[in-house]
Fold each of these.
Amino acid sequence: EQSQQVLEESLQGLIASNHGIHTAIAHAELGTTLLLRGLPKPAAAYFDTAIALYRAAGSRGNLAEHLISQARALSAAGEPMAALMAIDEARKLIIELSSDTLHIDLRVALAEIHGLHDLPYSFEIAAPNLVLHFLEEALSVGNGLQGWQAPATLLLSLAEAWSSVQEGQKAFEYAKQAIAADRRERNKQAE
């Protein structure tokens, strides 16, 4: 709540001084804060504004990143089709930009969307469900990147998803990896 207030005050100053890209970033940060606070509709509105400002400034990397965030907000707000449209636009930009790390975020967002909504799909999957399909894809894409280490959040999501389909051994393995990743991330923060 306090970070929301600080961001809102900063945003007012940026709007008054007409700093396009900085204003877009502030809108996106406020959208992220609202989404984390469980307020997806207002979050989506802030992402809409950020996205319009990114487009006006020609900032395509930020645009792709925040289209993914907007998709998360729209999905949480009960608008899965709009979320998938944002994902589709982000996917096209990510391919154009050759941004491998955003491919990971895109797949995690798709897992979240399909975890909240029972949506049709027209492709084959090897995993028991779409959530696992996209989470495993995210891990696979990340593992293909030099120096990338799976974040604890992704590994924990995989553990939970495998547990939900009664695959205890896989869930346990991912949970152990999540604990190790969490320790690694905490040690990095402490440095």
Amino acid sequence: RFLWADGILLLFLFFRVALPTMVLLFRGEPWGALAAKTLFGPIQYYVIYRMAVEFVDDARKVRQVLFLMILSYGIVSVIGVLQALQVPGINIFLETWYPSNKNMYTFLFARRVTSLWAGDWNGVGIYLAMCMAMGLGTFHLFEERWRRTTVIVISVLNLVVMFLTASFTGIICAVLGLFILLALSPQAKHLA
């Protein structure tokens, strides 16, 4: 199935990936890992979107995909905790596989968690605030107790790591997300 959203996403990929790549090739400029990740990173979002459109067609599959997404948020949070605890080798791993345009020593001395976000603590803070809100807003959809517990634990871990980023924007987003969850909850509707 090719949807109208495919056309918009393909247009986005043309201007975000293909056109800048052609310009860099035409100019003969050298590439680094950061440039390749920045240029070709958006393609993965389109691939995930296409997989969802083709394979997720009932409520059970939606819950499975949602649970896998929440587990991936947990991976980001665990890496953030390892970075906050200054586990030997974690910053070298992040600098090698998720290179940044900032100096690694900035993070060692600033003690701000960036996890997999290539030196962007605001980006990871906002991401984890969204993940926390998604987890807390959807944990009741899971029938198995262990899945509900896992989602709640990951959501709390997301909140902790979001505070470790020291991202003011992430904190604002987390507070707004919690207010929205409270406003949308069935109990809040009964109070009104």
